[in-house]
Q: What sequence folds into this?
Protein backbone atom coordinates (compact mmCIF):
# COMPACT_ATOMS: atom_id res chain seq x y z
CA UNK A 1 0.00 0.00 0.00
CA UNK A 2 1.41 3.33 -1.05
CA UNK A 3 -0.50 5.79 1.10
CA UNK A 4 1.62 6.70 4.12
CA UNK A 5 -1.56 7.03 6.13
CA UNK A 6 -1.99 3.27 5.99
CA UNK A 7 1.14 2.87 8.02
CA UNK A 8 -0.43 4.83 10.81
CA UNK A 9 -3.61 2.81 11.19
CA UNK A 10 -4.48 -0.78 10.62
CA UNK A 11 -7.06 -1.48 7.91
CA UNK A 12 -10.14 -3.59 8.42
CA UNK A 13 -10.62 -6.74 6.28
CA UNK A 14 -13.69 -5.15 4.70
CA UNK A 15 -11.63 -2.25 3.50
CA UNK A 16 -9.06 -4.54 1.97
CA UNK A 17 -11.79 -6.12 -0.12
CA UNK A 18 -13.04 -2.76 -1.40
CA UNK A 19 -12.13 -1.59 -4.91
CA UNK A 20 -8.99 0.45 -5.48
CA UNK A 21 -10.78 2.40 -8.22
CA UNK A 22 -11.18 6.06 -7.23
CA UNK A 23 -14.77 6.78 -6.21
CA UNK A 24 -16.75 9.81 -7.19
CA UNK A 25 -17.23 12.45 -4.49
CA UNK A 26 -20.87 13.42 -4.30
CA UNK A 27 -21.83 15.88 -1.57
CA UNK A 28 -25.46 17.01 -1.42
CA UNK A 29 -25.12 19.06 1.78
CA UNK A 30 -22.60 20.05 4.44
CA UNK A 31 -19.41 22.07 4.58
CA UNK A 32 -17.81 22.54 1.21
CA UNK A 33 -14.17 21.49 1.14
CA UNK A 34 -14.35 19.13 4.14
CA UNK A 35 -14.37 15.94 2.09
CA UNK A 36 -11.93 14.03 -0.07
CA UNK A 37 -12.01 10.80 -1.94
CA UNK A 38 -10.02 8.12 -0.16
CA UNK A 39 -8.48 4.98 -1.56
CA UNK A 40 -10.20 1.61 -1.53
CA UNK A 41 -13.77 2.88 -1.74
CA UNK A 42 -13.53 5.24 1.19
CA UNK A 43 -14.20 8.88 1.75
CA UNK A 44 -12.32 11.22 4.03
CA UNK A 45 -14.00 13.84 6.22
CA UNK A 46 -12.05 16.59 7.95
CA UNK A 47 -11.05 15.27 11.36
CA UNK A 48 -13.32 16.01 14.31
CA UNK A 49 -12.52 14.27 17.56
CA UNK A 50 -16.12 14.13 18.74
CA UNK A 51 -17.09 12.42 15.49
CA UNK A 52 -14.17 10.00 15.73
CA UNK A 53 -15.22 8.97 19.25
CA UNK A 54 -18.77 8.38 18.05
CA UNK A 55 -17.65 6.22 15.14
CA UNK A 56 -15.40 4.16 17.40
CA UNK A 57 -18.35 3.48 19.72
CA UNK A 58 -20.73 2.90 16.82
CA UNK A 59 -18.48 0.21 15.36
CA UNK A 60 -19.28 -1.84 18.49
CA UNK A 61 -22.98 -0.98 18.66
CA UNK A 62 -26.17 -2.49 17.27
CA UNK A 63 -26.29 0.54 14.95
CA UNK A 64 -23.20 -0.54 13.07
CA UNK A 65 -25.10 -1.70 9.93
CA UNK A 66 -26.69 1.75 9.74
CA UNK A 67 -23.50 3.82 9.70
CA UNK A 68 -20.56 3.88 7.29
CA UNK A 69 -17.77 1.56 8.41
CA UNK A 70 -15.07 3.62 10.10
CA UNK A 71 -11.39 3.04 9.30
CA UNK A 72 -9.46 5.43 11.54
CA UNK A 73 -7.58 8.66 10.99
CA UNK A 74 -5.45 9.35 7.94
CA UNK A 75 -3.40 12.33 6.85
CA UNK A 76 -3.45 14.06 3.49
CA UNK A 77 -1.47 17.23 2.82
CA UNK A 78 -0.81 17.57 6.53
CA UNK A 79 -4.52 17.57 7.37
CA UNK A 80 -6.15 14.85 9.48
CA UNK A 81 -9.25 13.09 8.20
CA UNK A 82 -11.67 10.51 9.52
CA UNK A 83 -11.80 7.72 6.98
CA UNK A 84 -15.06 5.88 6.35
CA UNK A 85 -16.77 3.83 3.69
CA UNK A 86 -18.24 5.72 0.81
CA UNK A 87 -21.91 4.77 1.07
CA UNK A 88 -22.36 5.16 -2.67
CA UNK A 89 -20.20 2.10 -3.33
CA UNK A 90 -22.17 -0.70 -4.96
CA UNK A 91 -24.75 1.69 -6.40
CA UNK A 92 -24.93 2.40 -10.08
CA UNK A 93 -25.24 6.16 -10.80
CA UNK A 94 -27.05 6.68 -7.51
CA UNK A 95 -29.55 9.30 -6.41
CA UNK A 96 -28.73 10.73 -2.98
CA UNK A 97 -30.68 12.75 -0.40
CA UNK A 98 -29.58 14.23 2.92
CA UNK A 99 -32.21 14.65 5.68
CA UNK A 100 -31.08 16.41 8.84
CA UNK A 101 -32.72 14.70 11.81
CA UNK A 102 -34.05 16.07 15.07
CA UNK A 103 -35.91 19.08 16.38
CA UNK A 104 -32.76 20.92 17.49
CA UNK A 105 -29.71 21.59 15.33
CA UNK A 106 -27.28 23.08 17.87
CA UNK A 107 -25.86 21.76 21.11
CA UNK A 108 -26.91 23.07 24.50
CA UNK A 109 -23.26 23.95 25.10
CA UNK A 110 -23.41 26.27 22.07
CA UNK A 111 -26.19 28.19 23.83
CA UNK A 112 -24.01 28.65 26.90
CA UNK A 113 -21.09 29.88 24.80
CA UNK A 114 -23.42 32.28 22.96
CA UNK A 115 -24.47 33.76 26.31
CA UNK A 116 -21.03 33.94 27.88
CA UNK A 117 -18.99 34.96 24.84
CA UNK A 118 -21.41 36.16 22.14
CA UNK A 119 -19.83 36.28 18.72
CA UNK A 120 -22.33 37.68 16.22
CA UNK A 121 -21.66 36.47 12.68
CA UNK A 122 -21.85 38.55 9.56
CA UNK A 123 -21.96 35.53 7.22
CA UNK A 124 -25.07 34.21 8.96
CA UNK A 125 -26.70 37.65 8.83
CA UNK A 126 -26.07 37.64 5.08
CA UNK A 127 -27.55 34.15 4.70
CA UNK A 128 -30.58 35.25 6.74
CA UNK A 129 -31.40 38.41 4.77
CA UNK A 130 -30.88 36.55 1.51
CA UNK A 131 -33.92 34.43 2.46
CA UNK A 132 -35.95 37.09 4.26
CA UNK A 133 -34.71 40.70 4.72
CA UNK A 134 -37.46 41.33 7.31
CA UNK A 135 -36.21 38.80 9.87
CA UNK A 136 -33.26 40.55 11.59
CA UNK A 137 -34.04 42.70 14.63
CA UNK A 138 -33.05 46.37 14.71
CA UNK A 139 -29.99 45.45 16.75
CA UNK A 140 -28.97 42.72 14.34
CA UNK A 141 -29.47 45.10 11.45
CA UNK A 142 -27.26 47.68 13.14
CA UNK A 143 -24.56 45.05 13.75
CA UNK A 144 -25.10 43.40 10.37
CA UNK A 145 -24.55 40.19 12.32
CA UNK A 146 -26.49 37.48 14.19
CA UNK A 147 -25.55 34.90 16.80
CA UNK A 148 -25.14 31.38 15.43
CA UNK A 149 -27.77 29.95 17.79
CA UNK A 150 -30.25 32.62 16.71
CA UNK A 151 -29.53 31.76 13.06
CA UNK A 152 -29.89 28.02 13.73
CA UNK A 153 -33.20 28.54 15.60
CA UNK A 154 -34.51 30.65 12.76
CA UNK A 155 -33.54 27.93 10.26
CA UNK A 156 -35.38 25.38 12.39
CA UNK A 157 -38.64 27.34 12.47
CA UNK A 158 -38.44 28.24 8.80
CA UNK A 159 -38.13 24.58 7.81
CA UNK A 160 -39.77 21.32 8.89
CA UNK A 161 -37.19 20.83 11.68
CA UNK A 162 -39.50 22.53 14.20
CA UNK A 163 -42.76 21.04 12.90
CA UNK A 164 -41.71 17.52 11.90
CA UNK A 165 -38.34 16.92 13.56
CA UNK A 166 -36.39 16.53 10.31
CA UNK A 167 -35.65 18.57 7.21
CA UNK A 168 -34.47 17.90 3.70
CA UNK A 169 -31.05 19.49 3.18
CA UNK A 170 -30.58 18.55 -0.45
CA UNK A 171 -30.70 15.82 -3.03
CA UNK A 172 -29.15 14.82 -6.30
CA UNK A 173 -30.94 12.64 -8.82
CA UNK A 174 -29.12 10.00 -10.82
CA UNK A 175 -29.25 12.35 -13.82
CA UNK A 176 -27.00 14.70 -11.83
CA UNK A 177 -29.83 17.20 -11.28
CA UNK A 178 -29.19 18.76 -7.87
CA UNK A 179 -31.67 20.49 -5.52
CA UNK A 180 -30.57 22.29 -2.38
CA UNK A 181 -33.16 25.00 -2.01
CA UNK A 182 -35.19 23.56 0.89
CA UNK A 183 -34.80 26.25 3.53
CA UNK A 184 -38.55 26.98 3.37
CA UNK A 185 -39.74 23.40 2.91
CA UNK A 186 -41.84 23.13 6.05
CA UNK A 187 -45.27 21.54 5.67
CA UNK A 188 -45.85 17.82 5.28
CA UNK A 189 -47.20 18.45 1.78
CA UNK A 190 -44.06 20.35 0.76
CA UNK A 191 -41.84 17.59 2.16
CA UNK A 192 -43.91 14.94 0.37
CA UNK A 193 -43.60 16.84 -2.91
CA UNK A 194 -39.82 17.11 -2.53
CA UNK A 195 -39.53 13.44 -1.64
CA UNK A 196 -41.71 12.43 -4.58
CA UNK A 197 -39.46 14.43 -6.88
CA UNK A 198 -36.37 12.71 -5.42
CA UNK A 199 -37.77 9.21 -6.02
CA UNK A 200 -39.34 10.31 -9.30
CA UNK A 201 -42.69 8.89 -8.11
CA UNK A 202 -41.26 5.38 -7.96
CA UNK A 203 -43.22 3.61 -5.19
CA UNK A 204 -40.90 0.61 -5.27
CA UNK A 205 -38.15 2.94 -4.07
CA UNK A 206 -40.42 4.51 -1.42
CA UNK A 207 -41.24 1.01 -0.19
CA UNK A 208 -37.54 0.16 0.03
CA UNK A 209 -36.83 3.31 2.04
CA UNK A 210 -39.74 2.62 4.39
CA UNK A 211 -38.34 -0.81 5.18
CA UNK A 212 -34.93 0.68 5.97
CA UNK A 213 -36.41 3.39 8.17
CA UNK A 214 -38.59 0.97 10.14
CA UNK A 215 -35.63 -1.32 10.74
CA UNK A 216 -33.51 1.62 11.77
CA UNK A 217 -36.19 2.72 14.27
CA UNK A 218 -36.26 -0.75 15.80
CA UNK A 219 -32.50 -0.80 16.20
CA UNK A 220 -32.38 2.75 17.58
CA UNK A 221 -34.86 1.72 20.28
CA UNK A 222 -32.41 -0.93 21.50
CA UNK A 223 -29.06 0.76 20.81
CA UNK A 224 -26.80 1.45 23.80
CA UNK A 225 -25.11 4.22 21.84
CA UNK A 226 -28.38 5.97 21.06
CA UNK A 227 -29.59 5.67 24.65
CA UNK A 228 -26.47 7.43 25.90
CA UNK A 229 -26.09 10.24 23.36
CA UNK A 230 -27.65 13.54 22.37
CA UNK A 231 -27.75 13.25 18.57
CA UNK A 232 -27.78 16.72 17.08
CA UNK A 233 -27.25 17.84 13.50
CA UNK A 234 -26.92 14.26 12.30
CA UNK A 235 -28.33 13.28 8.91
CA UNK A 236 -29.89 10.28 7.25
CA UNK A 237 -28.38 9.64 3.85
CA UNK A 238 -30.85 8.09 1.39
CA UNK A 239 -29.36 6.34 -1.62
CA UNK A 240 -31.06 4.49 -4.48
CA UNK A 241 -30.38 3.65 -8.10
CA UNK A 242 -32.16 2.47 -11.23
CA UNK A 243 -31.77 -1.19 -10.25
CA UNK A 244 -34.20 -0.52 -7.38
CA UNK A 245 -31.54 -0.88 -4.71
CA UNK A 246 -32.05 1.40 -1.70
CA UNK A 247 -30.16 2.24 1.46
CA UNK A 248 -30.46 4.61 4.42
CA UNK A 249 -27.55 5.34 6.75
CA UNK A 250 -26.87 7.68 9.64
CA UNK A 251 -24.03 10.13 8.99
CA UNK A 252 -22.49 13.21 10.62
CA UNK A 253 -21.76 12.76 14.31
CA UNK A 254 -19.76 15.96 14.71
CA UNK A 255 -22.38 17.28 17.13
CA UNK A 256 -23.35 14.04 18.82
CA UNK A 257 -22.46 14.26 22.49
CA UNK A 258 -22.31 11.63 25.24
CA UNK A 259 -24.87 12.31 27.97
CA UNK A 260 -23.90 12.51 31.62
CA UNK A 261 -24.97 9.29 33.38
CA UNK A 262 -27.70 11.02 35.41
CA UNK A 263 -29.52 12.25 32.26
CA UNK A 264 -31.77 10.02 30.20
CA UNK A 265 -33.51 11.07 27.02
CA UNK A 266 -36.28 9.38 25.03
CA UNK A 267 -35.50 11.26 21.78
CA UNK A 268 -39.22 12.08 21.42
CA UNK A 269 -40.08 14.52 24.21
CA UNK A 270 -39.99 18.24 23.44
CA UNK A 271 -36.73 19.98 24.22
CA UNK A 272 -36.46 22.41 27.10
CA UNK A 273 -33.04 23.72 27.94
CA UNK A 274 -31.28 21.28 30.24
CA UNK A 275 -33.20 18.11 29.28
CA UNK A 276 -30.91 17.44 26.27
CA UNK A 277 -33.76 15.98 24.20
CA UNK A 278 -32.96 16.01 20.47
CA UNK A 279 -36.28 14.95 18.90
CA UNK A 280 -34.54 12.34 16.74
CA UNK A 281 -37.16 9.60 17.12
CA UNK A 282 -40.00 12.10 16.89
CA UNK A 283 -38.53 13.14 13.54
CA UNK A 284 -38.06 9.55 12.43
CA UNK A 285 -41.70 8.74 13.34
CA UNK A 286 -42.84 11.70 11.23
CA UNK A 287 -40.55 10.74 8.37
CA UNK A 288 -41.91 7.19 8.37
CA UNK A 289 -45.51 8.50 8.50
CA UNK A 290 -44.80 10.86 5.60
CA UNK A 291 -43.45 8.06 3.40
CA UNK A 292 -46.23 5.68 4.50
CA UNK A 293 -48.78 8.31 3.42
CA UNK A 294 -47.19 8.42 -0.03
CA UNK A 295 -47.72 4.64 -0.29
CA UNK A 296 -51.32 4.90 0.99
CA UNK A 297 -52.14 7.62 -1.53
CA UNK A 298 -50.96 5.32 -4.32
CA UNK A 299 -53.00 2.37 -3.05
CA UNK A 300 -56.22 4.45 -2.55
N1 LIG B 1 -19.87 8.09 4.23
C1 LIG B 1 -20.39 8.81 3.23
N2 LIG B 1 -20.61 8.23 2.03
C2 LIG B 1 -21.12 8.93 1.00
N3 LIG B 1 -21.43 10.24 1.05
C3 LIG B 1 -21.22 10.88 2.22
C4 LIG B 1 -20.70 10.20 3.37
N4 LIG B 1 -20.57 11.09 4.38
C5 LIG B 1 -21.01 12.27 3.89
N5 LIG B 1 -21.38 12.17 2.60
C6 LIG B 1 -21.86 13.25 1.72
O1 LIG B 1 -21.42 14.48 2.25
C7 LIG B 1 -22.54 15.29 2.65
C8 LIG B 1 -22.22 16.05 3.91
O2 LIG B 1 -21.92 15.16 4.95
P1 LIG B 1 -21.93 15.60 6.49
O3 LIG B 1 -23.33 15.81 6.93
O4 LIG B 1 -21.12 14.60 7.26
O5 LIG B 1 -21.17 17.02 6.40
P2 LIG B 1 -21.10 18.22 7.41
O6 LIG B 1 -20.22 19.23 6.80
O7 LIG B 1 -20.74 17.71 8.78
O8 LIG B 1 -22.61 18.74 7.44
P3 LIG B 1 -23.28 19.90 8.33
O9 LIG B 1 -23.29 21.13 7.50
O10 LIG B 1 -24.67 19.38 8.60
O11 LIG B 1 -22.48 20.03 9.59
C9 LIG B 1 -23.70 14.33 2.75
O12 LIG B 1 -24.94 15.00 2.49
C10 LIG B 1 -23.38 13.32 1.67
O13 LIG B 1 -23.76 13.80 0.39
O1 LIG C 1 -27.48 25.29 6.26
P1 LIG C 1 -27.00 26.70 6.43
O2 LIG C 1 -28.11 27.65 6.48
O3 LIG C 1 -25.95 27.07 5.43
O4 LIG C 1 -26.31 26.78 7.89
C1 LIG C 1 -25.27 25.93 8.28
C2 LIG C 1 -25.86 24.62 8.84
O5 LIG C 1 -26.85 24.88 9.78
C3 LIG C 1 -24.77 23.74 9.44
O6 LIG C 1 -25.39 22.64 10.09
C4 LIG C 1 -23.90 24.49 10.46
O7 LIG C 1 -22.80 23.69 10.81
P2 LIG C 1 -22.69 22.84 12.14
O8 LIG C 1 -23.80 21.82 12.03
O9 LIG C 1 -21.34 22.22 12.08
O10 LIG C 1 -22.90 23.74 13.30
C5 LIG C 1 -23.33 25.76 9.84
O11 LIG C 1 -22.62 26.45 10.87
P3 LIG C 1 -21.13 27.00 10.66
O12 LIG C 1 -21.22 28.08 9.61
O13 LIG C 1 -20.72 27.49 12.01
O14 LIG C 1 -20.29 25.85 10.21
C6 LIG C 1 -24.43 26.67 9.31
O15 LIG C 1 -23.83 27.79 8.67
A:
Amino acid sequence: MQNSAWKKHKTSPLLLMAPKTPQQLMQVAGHAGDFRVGDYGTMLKKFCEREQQCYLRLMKDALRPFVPAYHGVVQQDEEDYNMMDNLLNNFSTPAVMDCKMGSRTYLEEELLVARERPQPRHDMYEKMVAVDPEVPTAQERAQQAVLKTRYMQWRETLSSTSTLGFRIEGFQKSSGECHTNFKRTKSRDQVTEAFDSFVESNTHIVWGYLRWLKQLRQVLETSDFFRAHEVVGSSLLFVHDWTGRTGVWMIDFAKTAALPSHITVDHRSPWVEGNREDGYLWGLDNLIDTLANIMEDVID
